[in-house]
Amino acid sequence: MTDQDLIAAARAAAEHSYSPYSNFAVGAALRFADGSVVTGTNIENASYGMALCAETVAVVKAMAGGTRGGLVAVAVTGPDDKGGGDPITPCGRCRQVLHELAALGGTDPDVLCVGPEDVKRVKLSALLPAAFGPASLV
Ligand code: THU
What we know:
Elements: H1 3-14, E1 27-32, E2 37-41, H2 54-64, E3 71-77, H3 92-105, E4 110-114, E5 119-123, H4 124-127
Bound molecules: tetrahydrodeoxyuridine.
Tetrahydrodeoxyuridine binds next to helix 2.
């Protein structure tokens, strides 16, 4: 599974986005150390504030399947005709949700933020410095 494959998986997941209110389809794909991939897409709600982001859906799918840690890479895609051409980056809440899963396995995943023209690769720790996590509670 190459980075391009992971990005393709995120784009494929976005085809199932339920985003009638924002018309902003987001896809996420998580790659794990064992080679497995779990995807997610944003799911909105008529009660707007209840929208679930693509990254959060992917993390919840993975964790509900028993996965704890091993997160090595994340790809996030948005609609190419929005965002001013800049690569999409995970929202603050999703950074925190991703950090929980990553921290369980002690990894610092690469986050591939995909734009219409380029891909920005950034460590999760750079997106969420000085993170609060499981170790903060012991
Ligand atoms: N969204 C995501 O799925 N992930 C993000 O990191 C940013 C925002 C979704 C939420 C909402 O359905 C739509 O994009 C517009 O904010």
